[in-house]
Amino acid sequence: MKFFYLSTNDNDQGFFEIHERECPHLPPLLQRDYIGLFNSAKEALKKAINFNPNASLCSICSQKLVKKRDSSANQIIEN
Ligand SMILES: [Zn+2]
To answer: How far is the CA of 65 from the centre of ligand 1 (A)?
Structure first.
């Protein structure tokens, strides 16, 4: 499970991006709303869209989430 946040500032396309807590693009504390704990970015989107119909997934961290993290740095999991 991961913590997800919804940006309170829209991006260039007018969407409000959903980020996981470790995303390098996570907005500062005052520019994001906590959504909750979810297994995937898609589940976070389902919830966020209820209170913001313009919510969308961040292209950076939503991609990263589909890859499994491995403690071994030598093993890279290909998509
Ligand atoms: Zn992100």
So the answer is: 10
